[in-house]
Amino acid sequence: MTTQKTPAPSVPATVPARAPERKPQGPTVRIRREPNAPAWDGGIVYTEKNSPPRVLYYGDDFRLENLPVGTRVIFPKPPMAGLNNPDAAIRYALNHPEQSEPLYAKLYPGMKVTIAIDDISLPLPPMKRPDIRERVLTIVLQMMADHGVTDIEIIIATALHRRMKDWEVRHTVGEKIFRDYWPDRLYNFDGEDEGLEIVGTTERGEVVELPRRVLDSDLLIYVNVNLVPMDGGNKSVSVGLAGYRSLKAHHNPYTMRECHSYMDPKRSSLSDSVDRMGKIVNETIDVFHIETSINNHMFDGQMGFLMKREEDWTDFDWLRFKGLMFGLSKMPADARTAVFSRIEAPYAMTGVWAGKTNAVHEKTLERVYQQYSVPVRGQSDVVIQGMPFISPYNIHSILNPVLVQVLASGYMHNLYRGVPLLKKGGTLIISNPAEDRFDAEQHPSYIEFFHRLLPLTRDSTVLHKKYEQEFADNPIYKQMYRRGNAYHAVHPFYMWYWGEAGRAHMGRVIVAGAKSDQVCETLGYEPARNLAEAIEMAKDTAPQNPSFTMVHSPPIMLCDVEDPNVSPREPADRHTGGHGNGNGQHGS
Amino acid sequence: MSRAAFFDVDGTLTRTNIASALGYYLQSLQNPLLGAFRVAQQVARLPLLTWAEAMDRGSFNEQLFAAYQGFSEDRLRVLADEVVDRLLLPGLFPGARQLVDACAAQGMTLVLISGSPDFLVKPFGQRLGFDERFCFGNRLEFVRNTCTGRILPPVLAGPRKAAMMRELADQHGWRLTDCYAYSDDSADAPMLSVVGHPAAVNPGPRLRRMAQSQRWPVIELS
């Protein structure tokens, strides 16, 4: 195996011989890596003849694929070390908040406090116990008890997501809090509740609404888990505790196509919109925001090898992987889904901040970027990406075709700052079976959306104008959202809009290993039997000697793409190997 | 847009089944001995009822409603309000009223279409805000103010419900593809199949399987 990581380049005239000096981003916080994590070498590996095959996620299965020689493979950073004493860090944050008085100073006997927490869509996969929310809630609730605060309700800020089931809530908040509060004082938010009140309208006409309980409270505390940069901040309250009439202000095709990207708040109209709404929220109620960041340690134990590069796999890792592939091949689809649903991530908390929303979020973003951003030079003609078993919207469920679409054209496409990794009009190859499988309990309206509407039109604007309200008013879906565990009727529309900017950017999407041509056709994608066929198809419309890039994810990463005009095959790219400091430190 | 929402009653909106009201009538007979005797008669007919249920819902209704034989029309109608207030309304599923109200809020015409006797369906529907003209149940035959225990044809069950929905849609200009239907019973599959928006409500295993294969939404109101 001779995979080249830092070759001596011969530099073409159009590319500077030396990479420009990088300005350090953020304050000089030294970030430790996990003890057994490899040193960070820049995360770029070029495929050679003898390179090992790469593991591609394939829904709730995997594919082992040989990539074309020269393919750039981008790996995530190794996990940052978690805080040594998370509970002490939480207490410190509560007592030393950003631009706010300490939490204890806000508390007094007889006051009414509402706590809102992020729902099960964060983090992915759900984390091992104790969940961060349990840690934070335990300390916050103890502090309130010490100050004689007894009128407390905890709302799971689901927005239009599905309601969490009792056992999921127990896993998230822990046994004691669950026993003390569920279901009367710890409950799921209801975006169709008559008790939602409009508290204001922004200068752009965006309606801001909040639950009656929150408006009646003396203090709202929001407990967030930040996985990627688009989480948290003003989005927490103004989206998490909002219903349809408020969310439609920004969850629409017009806002979504003006996001470049969702992960770059400065260039996201969604972020602008929630900031405007957040301003009204903060003028209306006293919000004490608690944000946490986590590392990217998604897998351990039997699946721990997925955190490593194939070059670093031991013989035992290969054996385990082959065993896993064999086992999965013998299982029916539902059993495979069940196996993957049981995965719990060993995420560690890398930071916690509290206080005013914007000041807190600034700190959080800085830490999140330190973990997730990978500097990359040059866009690619073809990007290859495995579509995993999970998205924020199918926890303990199936990744249906509409969710495959939102991963491919939405989330994965948007994991960039600067410019997209894929050249405008380029080809995205995803690895996924693209089967016609839906969870009728969680995604009932997705079925009608996919089978009735998408064959009529894939135009987001038409879907938005002509059909969204009809779905929103559907009493069946409304009832399933309010009483069952279904996503709101309009959720598949939102998922389609999330892919809007990606669809406008991509030339083609080819699904390697597609089992249903009809599913691909409905999504506007092209089916291919396998990756080799997909690559050949991609070459048909690509320039001569196209550049290929594989994003080796999850664990997820965020590509900071610079110099779009530089070919990713140019040796200048390989300077990224020098960004690490060689001693396992990363970040600035 | 002119459209309607069709609701089954027993097991869909209420916990009661079609025999619950009959049980109430039997136990409220003035002569308790006679009441006990009639109940015992029904128990003895259980194998016949089970067979009828296995055959089709219409036969079952015919067999079951034979137990109304001998009741005076006055008594059945006078006690109907009591049955509704003491049995059906307390047995409403928690989300039932919310579901009915959500349909009404969308401007749909609310239609009750049940295998239960019409003298029960109408007052029950009125309590939930249904127009009496759109509350349909089976009509029992009365001769000289006494119930014969026979159902006047057509028996409202299974495919007949679907046929009635089509007739109503024609009469009132509803587009069935825009209409909604709710039922808990696999015998109502035709009723669910004729509308554009069917939903299986608290379904039994058979309807649940059917809903799964047809990809009908499943609502749990209980």
Question: Numbering strands along the chain, what is their spatial order in the largest sheet of chain A?
Answer: 1-4-19-14-16-17-18
Question: In percent, how much strand structure appears in the residues of chain A?
Answer: 15-25%
Work out the radius of gyration of chain A: 23 Å
DSSP strand count of chain B: 8
- The CATH homologous superfamily of chain B is named HAD superfamily/HAD-like
Second-tier CATH architecture of the domain at 86-294 in chain A = 3-Layer(aba) Sandwich
Q: What oligomeric arrangement do these chains adopt?
A: heterodimer
Range of helix content of chain A: 25-40%
Distance between the termini of chain B: 31 Å
Largest sheet of chain A: 7 strands, mixed
Name given to the CATH homologous superfamily of the domain at 86-294 in chain A: LarA, N-terminal domain
Broad shape of chain A: globular
Number of discrete helical segments of chain A: 21
Describe the sheet with the most strands of chain B: 6 strands, parallel
The pLDDT mean of chain B sits at 89
CATH level 1 class label of the domain at 86-294 in chain A: Alpha Beta
Widest sheet: strand ordering of chain B:
3-2-1-6-7-8
CATH class membership of chain B: Alpha Beta
Number of extended strands of chain A: 20
Number of helical regions of chain B: 10
